[in-house]
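Q: Here's a chain of 60 amino acids. Please give me its 3D structure as tokens.
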Amino acid sequence: MIYLCEIIGGKLKDDSWRWFNKKEILNHIDRSYNQSSDIYLTDELIDLCIELFNIIEGEK
């Protein structure tokens, strides 16, 4: 699981924290899913999360 939050104007947005598992992140690769989701993730953020999961899984 990865814990993500939103940063606005250099400050953490208190109500934006959310856990994501790898499956949820992979679902966001599908643009239609990402657009219709309650949380939109940029392509860069999706790529970063996938890389983090790959690193985490490599350490197990």
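Q: Can you summarize the key feature?
A: Residues 6 and 12 are 6 Å apart (CA to CA).
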